[in-house]
Design a protein that fits this description.
- By secondary structure, the chain is an alpha/beta fold.
- The chain has one domain: 3-Layer(aba) Sandwich (Rossmann fold).
- It is built from eight helices and five strands; from the N terminus they run βαβααβααβααβα.
- Strands 2-3-1-4-5 form a five-stranded parallel beta sheet, sandwiched between helices.
- The longest helix is centred in the middle third of the chain and has 25 residues, at about 65-90.
- It is globular, with a radius of gyration of 17 Å.
């Protein structure tokens, strides 16, 4: 059976990834495709426990290297349990975040650098690369405003995933810049969708970027 198609969505919290991955999955389903949708951190029982530790603002301080190691532990489990079996079965996989996030947040934000992140990716993830990455990059100020507003709503509802949003703006500035660096380096893989666009405008750009590949993948299955 032909191998499936691996698509990731990337961007800062508040960039609109979650909304867009839902819209993209719905668009595919209406065309007879059945994408496997997952996220990182999370997506598996083990991953959800790691996610709670990493994102809960009440977590004790986590050393940058420990934080990066936890991200890769979650990723290894997701690859083994969800991503690789789905791709081997010829399915389309939509993943909310992958190693680009670790390179941006831990490599850039935590100032670990790209080399340790990419070395761990080769070792732990078998250097698995997405076929296509959609990088949503509104302005930094818009991302921060949206993310902090969302976390306030979640906190009122009893959910707390705001540990990263407690960081200073300089941290997110480094993340934003690292994402741009990744897009420049990985031109064949990363589709950069930037600017403060509406939800519909972003969706239209995503469909334009992926439709041909998705139709081809669908015909193979």
């Amino acid at each position: 059976m032909p191998r499936g198609l691996f698509i990731t969505l990337e961007g800062l919290d508040g960039s609109g990834k979650t909304t867009q991955i839902k819209r993209l999955a719905s668009w595919m389903q209406k065309r007879g495709l059945s994408p496997v949708v997952t996220r990182q951190p999370g997506g598996t029982a083990t991953g959800d426990r790691i996610r709670a530790l990493l994102l809960d603002s009440g977590s004790t301080p986590i050393a940058p290297m420990a934080e990066m190691a936890l991200m890769f532990a979650d990723r290894a489990q997701c690859i083994a349990e969800i991503i690789e079996p789905a791709l081997a079965a010829g399915k389309i996989v939509l993943c909310d975040r992958f190693t680009d996030s670790t390179e941006a947040y831990q490599g850039g934000g935590r100032e670990i650098g790209s080399d340790p992140v990419l070395a761990l990716h080769r070792l732990i993830c078998g250097n698995l690369q997405p076929d296509l990455t959609l990088l949503l990059l509104p302005s930094l100020s818009i991302c921060l405003e949206r993310a902090r507003r969302r976390n306030d709503r979640q906190a009122k509802g009893g959910s707390d995933e705001g540990r990263f949003e407690q960081e200073q703006d300089a941290f997110f500035g480094r993340v934003w810049q690292k994402y741009r660096e990744i897009a420049k380096r990985e031109r064949d893989r990363v589709i950069l969708i930037e600017g403060n666009l509406s939800i519909d405008e972003v969706h239209e750009q995503i469909i334009e970027a992926i439709s041909e590949r998705v139709v081809v993948a669908g015909k193979r299955t």
